[in-house]
Amino acid sequence: MQEFWMLLPVVSNLPLPGTSSNLSTTMELLNALNYHSWSEDAKVLLMEKGCWKFILGTESPLSERTTEKDIQDNKVKIRKDRVYSTLYFSISKEYRKLISDTDDGPKAWIKLKPNVKPSSRARIIALLDEFFNSRYGFGEEMGIFATKLRDIVLQLKNADK
C-alpha cells in the first residue's frame, strides 16, 4: 500500500480557491531530507481544501442523523482552516516556522505581527531615511512615485499601533 503523501500531487503556483488575488501555494516534492517542512505544507494545503480530517481519521460520513448544526459547524471549521492556510501560504518559509505550532488564524496573526511589523526605533529611522532620500526619477511615472511615498507614510503612521 502506498503512503498517503506519495498520492498527493505536486502543487506549484496553484491559485487558492475562493480568492481573487494571485496568492499561490508552492510545495517541494517530498524527499528524504525535507519531511518536516513538506508535512507542514501538506497539512496546511489539505486544511485549505477541507481534507485534513481524512488524514486524522476524524471525518465521518453524513448520516441520516446529521443535523443542520453539524453541517454549519463543518462549514465554520473549513472557513477557519482557510484563514490559517491563507496566512501560511502568504508568508515566506522562514516565517512559517513561527506559526507552525498552531493552526488557528488569529493566533498565527498575533505571532507574526511583532516579528515583521516595523515598530522598532531602528525601523522607523530607516523609513524616515527612505522617505527623505526618495527622488523622482527621470521617466518614472508620477503616480508610481507618489504611491511609493504614500506607502512609506502609511508604514510610519502604523508603526506604533
Automatic annotation (TrEMBL):
Pfam families: Retrotran_gag_2 (PF14223). This is DUF4219 domain-containing protein. The lineage of its organism: Eukaryota, Metazoa, Ecdysozoa, Arthropoda, Chelicerata.
